[in-house]
Amino acid sequence: xxxxxxxxxxxxxxxxxxxxxxxxxxxxxxxxxxxxxxxxxxxxxxxxxxxxxxxxxxxxxxxxxxxxxxxxxxxxxxxxxxxxxxxxxxxxxxxxxxxxxxxxxxxxxxxxxxxxxxxxxxxxxxxxxxxxxxxxxxxxxxxxxxxxxxxxxxxxxxxxxxxxxxxxxxxxxxxxxxxxxxxxxxxxxxxxxxxxxxxxxxxxxxxxxxxxxxxxxxxxxxxxxxxxxxxxxxxxxxxxxxxxxxxxxxxxxxxxxxxxxxxxxxxxx
Length: 269
Prior knowledge:
By secondary structure, the chain is α+β, with helices and mostly antiparallel strands. Helix content is 33%, strand content 29%.
C-alpha cells in the first residue's frame, strides 16, 4: 500500500513538473512573439522613415532642374544689366567698313547673230556724231575712212514718232522697212547734191536713246547703236523707200554714238 502511494506521488510530481514546464514554455513563446511583433513594428517604422526620406530626396531631385532653369534664365532676364558674355563682345573693337568699289557698267553680252551676219561685211568706223538736222531729229555723221571715191560717205539716223528714252531693235518689226520704221539708219556712199552712188539700210542692231532734250521745239537726243549691220539697197527717185538688193554688199559697225543735245535749231544738215 505504501509502495502504491509512493508511485502515485511520483507520477503526480512528474505530471506537475511537466505541466509547469509546459506553462513556462508557452509563456516564453508569447513573450518571444510579442518581442518579434515589436521588432517588426520597429522595423516597419524604420522603413516608413526611410521611405519618407526617399520621398524627400526625390523632391529635392525634382527641384534641381527648376533651379538649373532659373540659373540659365538669369543672363537674359536680368533687368539690371547685360549678360556677362555681352561684356566679352563689347571688348572686341569694331572694324571700319571698307569703301565699296564704284559700280561699273556690265560688259556687253556677245551677239552671235551679229558675229554670224557680219561675216563678209565691210567694217566701218563712225566718229561720234554731234550735229543734228534742221527740221527733225535727223542725225548726220560721216564714215572714216571713206568707202567711196572722192565724195563723202554719210550715215543718217532718223528718229520718228514718239521720241523717248529706251532701247529699240533695228531690222525687226516696224523697223524692218524704211516706209514704217520709227528708228531708221541708212548709209549714203559718195553722197553729193542729195543723192548717192550706193545706199545701205539697216538689217540688224540695237539702238538706245539715253537722253531727250527739247531745243527750240526740236527733240535733240543722245544715244548709241551697237552691232549695226546694213545691207545694200536701191531707192526710188524720191528717196521715199529703200529695198534691199538680194545679192548686195553689206557693211557693219560695232558701235555708233551721238549727242545732238547742244545743236541749235535751224542748224542745217
